[in-house]
Amino acid sequence: MYSQMLEARIRSNKMKSIYDPVTVLANVGEKRQAALAELGIVTIEDLLTHFPFRYEDIQVKGIYEIEDQEKASLKGEVVSEPVVSRFGYKKNRLSFRLKIDRDVITVSFFNQPYLKKNIVLGEEITIYGKWDEKRKSLAGIKVLGASSSSQDYSSVYHTTKKIKQKTFVNLIKAAYQEYQDFIPETVPEALREKYRLISRKEAVYAMHFPSSEEQARQARRETIFEEFLVYQLKMQFLRKKQKTANAGVSVDYDIARLKQFIQTLPFELTTAQKRVVNEICADLKKPVHMHRLLQGDVGSGKTIVAAIAVYAAVTAQVQSALMVPTEILAEQHMETFASLFDPLEVKVALLTGSTKAKERKEILAQLKNGEIDLIIGTHALIQDTVQFADLGLVITDEQHRFGVNQRKTLSDKGTEPDVLFMTATPIPRTLAITAYGEMDVSSIDEMPAGRIPIETTWTRPKNFEHTLEFVERQLNQGSQAYVICPLIEKSENLDVKNATDIYKRLTAYYQGRYQVGLLHGQMKAEEKDTVMETFKQNEVQVLVSTTVIEVGVNVPNATTMVIYDADRFGLAQLHQLRGRVGRGNKASYCILVANPKSEAGIERMKIMTETTNGFILSEKDLELRGPGDVFGHKQSGTPDFKVGDIVSDFGALEAAREEAAELVHSEHFLSDHQYAALREKVNQEQIETGTFS
Ligand code: ADP
Ligand code: MG
Q1: What is the domain count for the chain?
Q2: Is residue 462 part of a domain?
Q3: Which residue numbers delimit the Helicase C-terminal domain (predicted)?
Q4: Do 299 and 372 belong to one domain?
């Protein structure tokens, strides 16, 4: 009843706000609300900022205007009956001839026989597809219909099966229609002028429905600047608060016991590890908050550094919490820490979504009475029911996977605990400082001695049989292998291999000799765990996977990594994937299978074969990627931002940081009307509740 009244008032414009729930829209009922929520869309603002991840050029072009392999829309008259022919295993092709001016070309759609009904002999039609210059043929992606629209670009959104692209576009149009006058100009006028930014209202529209490439570029500039500015402000306020708050607690650890612990380790710390341990310990001891980022390549030994910090906390009799993004990773850490700490009578516990109720109850009690020294877990750790006796140290692994909110919620459970963020996506130091606001940064830029570097090669897809033979030779020596594919299932994009297909192919190839498993993001957590477990136990020797494997999987017996369509990934991601092998004492291999079309793609493949140092790779990445390609794919190492990319939009990030630093110290920021929208935006994300009041 109450909510109905509220909605009626909202509809009558009296108190419309961009933060209204999506249900205020006429065609959003309960079902659609739930479907939108799955995409993280709750408010009108969420909806309006769920930007397309890609645009398709639907402006009709002539065949002499386009290049080989370019995606474009062609319009012509259907001059042959469409025929569907079958080939291979369950495959079919729908083809017909299309007359464009004086030329006749062939159009083919693969595995979409149902499109036949849309193609009528003698009628005019527009097809979006990929042009093959040599064959004078178009590999169809979409039938755009007979009428050419006034727009040149069609937006493509990340959605689920429950909401179709068309529906989504309509929802956004409806939301814009009703709320365009309530879109706040978050970036203050002065900055808007200084950086020549278009209005937010214009930008939001053009992000969805650009009428030209230039307009899309301007919309993107505005959006990125706002996003970076809000983020930097949040970071700076956090930082300011930490600096001025009542002194943080000093973790007064026992240096003698700590040294003893380090001596019991089965190896000597690298110089880089020693340096960062010193940096962290100094922070712990100081009565201020540690707010430090620990970055280092996969395998550089961050975990042991974290363990040393935890042990320091133990000797100071405070508790520690380690939060990781996935259950697999949590369990792995549990094993590592338990074996490290068992002899020392340090009590470690694991808390995840699948912890049984009874065990959970017990763990919560022991956390509260201080029996547990270290709790390892997933998001489950930030629930209200989780309370500590004395939480002194919070560590988050793969920090970029968590929102600032989640990290903060965990820290709030202690009285000013020290916080360490770990990330295996090394980025150049200068960039890190800017990207993470005013965090302190520790870098492990060297690998433990004696590691056999991973040997990386690049091969073309036509040599795939050879690749499989090579993999088999490794399997014959008792090792295991990963095969990574960019997608789960067939997509419109014909030349991208998908995990399901590759899985079938490899199962057939290795039949009777080796077991092949399949892992992808649309599987349930339990299914994923089962597959991972069989791989860990070596019941499965070859694991075909999408990039879900990326975060923190550790199977030292896996020595070979094959990455299919490797040019579809950015350097950072390739590097992450490659880091899944080379974790044992056997020689490891990474095979990039790719047919890159662009210079940059070729360059990326080459660089990957030349170095395994993540810091060098990230510097190269910085060099290679110029200003962001508006219509290209977004590949970001740090998915903190919806649109902005800290590498290619570095200039904007730096500008935003400078402006934020000034604003945070300005007397007028908290009172002046011109900053009201910006204040609300920062507050809305609830990072600093209380900061402004
Ligand atoms: P990261 O978390 O940075 O990916 P880990 O901490 O998991 O890396 O370390 C990878 C492996 O290297 C582990 O098996 C660990 O025991 C080992 N290791 C860590 N530091 C050293 C060192 N200084 N010398 C030899 N091996 C080390
Ligand atoms: Mg790690």
Answers
A1: 4
A2: yes
A3: 463-628
A4: yes
Give the confidence band of 148 by pLDDT, cuts at 50, 70, 90. Answer: very low
Q: In the chain, what percentage of residues exceed pLDDT 70?
A: 86
Query: Measured between alpha carbons, how far is 562 from 134 in angstroms, rounded to an integer?
Result: 31
Q: Is residue 355 part of a domain?
A: yes
Name the domain boundary from 419, 444, 469: 444
Residue closest to 439 by CA, chosen among 660, 235, 246, 230:
235
325 and 414 share one domain: yes
Mutate to test the pocket of ligand 1, among 271, 274, 300, 303 (most ligand atoms within 8 A of CB): 303
pLDDT digit string (tens) for 20-75? Answer: 999 999 889 999 999 998 888 999 999 999 998 777 776 778 888 888 888 888 98
Q: Based on the domain organization, do 18 and 123 belong to the same domain? A: no
Residues 542 and 558 both lie in one domain: yes
What tens digit of pLDDT does each residue of 524-547 get? 878 888 998 899 999 999 999 987
Provide the residue range defining the domain that includes 419. Answer: 255-444
In angstroms, rounded to a whole number, what is the distance separating the alpha carbons of residues 558 and 539?
12
**CA nearest 395: which of 293, 315, 248, 316?**
293
Who has greater pLDDT, 319 or 648?
Answer: 319
CB of 580 shorter than 6 A to ligand 1: no
298 lines ligand 1 (CB under 6 A): yes
Quick one: average pLDDT of 448-474? 92
Looking at residue 570, its pLDDT comes to: 80
Ligand 1 neighbour 295 (Cβ under 6 A)? no
Are 13 and 33 within one domain? Answer: yes
Is residue 357 in some structural domain?
Answer: yes
CA of 303 to the centre of ligand 1 (A): 7
Residue 28 and residue 123 share a domain: no
- Does ligand 1 have an atom closer than 6 angstroms to the CB of 303? yes
Give 129-140 pLDDT, tens digit per residue. Answer: 899 988 899 998
683 domain residue, yes or no: no
Q: 668 is written with which tokens?
A: 């007028």
In this prediction the pTM is 0.63
CA nearest ligand 1 atom 20, residue: 301
CATH number at residue 602: 3.40.50.300
Long-range contacts from 264-273, C-beta under 8 angstroms, 24+ separation: 264/343, 265/304, 267/448, 269/301, 269/304, 270/300, 270/301, 270/444, 270/446, 270/447, 270/448, 270/449, 271/446, 272/296, 272/300, 272/443, 272/444, 272/445, 272/446, 273/301, 273/304, 273/305, 273/444
Report the atom number in ligand 1 closest to the C-alpha of 300: 3
Do residues 367 and 478 both lie within one domain? no
DSSP 326: S
What is the residue with the minimal CA distance to atom 9 of ligand 1? 301
Which of 66-70, 384-388, 468-472: highest mean pLDDT?
Answer: 468-472
175 and 132 co-located in one domain:
no
Mean residue pLDDT of the chain comes to 84
Ligand 1 within 6 A of CB of 269: yes
The domain that holds 17 is classified in CATH as: 1.10.150
